[in-house]
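The pair is listed for reference:
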Amino acid sequence: MTAEMTIEMTVENIKTELQNDVLIVTINRPDKLNALNRQTIEELHEILVDAENNKAIHALIITGSGNKAFVAGADISEFANFSVEEGKQLSSIGHFKIFNFIENYSKPVIAAVNGFALGGGLELAMACHIRVASNNAKMGLPEVSLGVIPGYGGTQRLAQLVGKGKAFEMIVTADMITADDAYKWGLVNYITTQEELLNKCLEITTKISTKSPVAIRAAIKVINSGYNTKQNGYEVEIEEFGKSFASKDFKEGVAAFLEKRKANFPGN
């Protein structure tokens, strides 16, 4: 696969485009403001699994079709009559196939938030490693307005990103916030115009692409371990730091530094 090659694929609810070594994943349900239904979750999971195993892909960008919404929540019509057990299963499957899966993904995933990111949409963005928002973006977790709570990790990841007090406020009031407030509170890394949103994400992935895939994979694992109550992040860091010395990426990185040249990481 050459650096110039561009591959496009469309399933029913998602479009993908490979630009060089970056997979752009677009949730494509514009008539539903890109709301997540079961089919979309299944399609997204399959795409993520394929991309995980594709060595030509170094990073992913997830966005929504059109200029109104990133993902405006889950498809409420699908679970309006669910039982307690069906509700638990809905949440559990979502965690496993999408939200935890993205958080622990071995390659950086960037959310390009191009409009409304509400409920499951904001939870999807928060599961990504980096978030860039267009200046028209609006974000919130409105679930308590429906008599439920966020079920795709929102109660946990929002508090990690903006702090416990602000998370309480956003969740119990169900208020939406602007892109400016999201940036102020650390919920997004950057704000751009709608036109420059994808370019900003690609600018970040260009930097990522020159770095060691082995080291990036380890860094994601170690950072996440610090938020896992079953792990000691410092101990995981020591372990992964030690492991890096056995990689070809480490040998190439050190050799390139000593020889004053650009590293060409093999990715193993």
Summary: The CA atoms of residues 93 and 120 lie 13 Å apart. Residues 1-7 have pLDDT under 50 and may be disordered.
